[in-house]
C-alpha cells in the first residue's frame, strides 16, 4: 500500500469499472455510491416491461479488490480541501478524485414534464403503473432517440392492451442509416406503435402532451427526450462546457483541477477526427478501464477510442445492430432478426461480466 487515497464517486459503467480496475493496484480506493447493486441502465426499458434483469451486487464486482464501498450519495466536493461530502454527513479526504456521476434524464425546461412524466430512472414505478391499470389507455413516449425507441417497442410488446405513441421533435431514428431507420419504423409499425414525427412537445399535463401541431391525449407519459450530466461537477467548480460536461485533457484529467479525473457521461472527451464522444455505456466503460490502467501504472498513453456498432433492442423479438465507422458516422450495413438479436443480447448480458 502506498498510502495514496483514490476516491471514486459513481458506480455506473464508468465508475464501477474504474474502481474495480484501480483496486487491483497498491492504492487505497473508496467507492462512493448509494446502490448495493449495479444499475445496468441500458436495460431500464426491460424493467419497465416487467422483465427480469440480472443486476450483480457491487460487493461481488469488487470482490478481491482493494476497494471499500461507501453506500451513500456524494452531495458536495471541496476542490480546495480535496474532500467529498456525503449524504450521511461524512467527509472523505482524497489524493485523487475520480468523478463518474454520469447523466440523468433532462426535462428540457418543458412545463409539467418532471411532474407528470415517468423517466427511465423510474422504470419500476412505470411497470407498476402499466401492469396495474384496470382500464388501459394511451402511453405517450417522448423522444425519438435510442431510449425512446427501446421503451416504445418494449412497452408495446409487453402491454398490448395499451396504445403506445412515440412522439419525437425530429425524425425517429434519424441518426441511423437509411436501412437502420427503415427497420426501426417497420418494427414499430408491426407492434402497433403510432409514430408522431416533427411533433414538438411544449408542455405535459395530467391529460397528456401539449403540442403546437396537435395535442396528444395520454393516460401515461414517458419522457426520453434527452440526457444531461449530473450538475455536481459544475456546482463544485470544475471547468465544464456549455452542456455541463467537465473539460478534460487527453488523459481524462480535469483541465481546471489536475487531481481530478472525469469519466463517462460527465466528461467532455474530445478526440481528433471524432469530436466529443456521446453519452453511452459504449464510451463510458472504455474510459473506466483506461483510467484504471493509467492510475495503476499499466499505461501512460493518451485515451483513444473508436466506435464499432450501435445496438437497439426492439422488444424481445427484434433488435438492430447498426454498423458504424470509428468516428461514429453510419455505415449502410445493419444486422436485424436473429443475428441482430443475438449480438445485442450478447453485448448487454456481457457488460456486467466485463466490469472487472
From TrEMBL:
Cofactors (names): FAD
A single GO BP: aerobic electron transport chain
Protein family (similarity comment): Belongs to the NADH dehydrogenase family.
Domain FAD/NAD(P)-binding: 5-285
Gene3D superfamilies cross-referenced by the UniProt entry: 3.50.50.100
Pfam family, one: Pyr_redox_2
Spans through the membrane: none
Keyword entries, A-Z: FAD, Flavoprotein, Oxidoreductase
Protein name per the record: NADH dehydrogenase FAD-containing subunit
GO MF terms held by the record: NAD(P)H dehydrogenase (quinone) activity
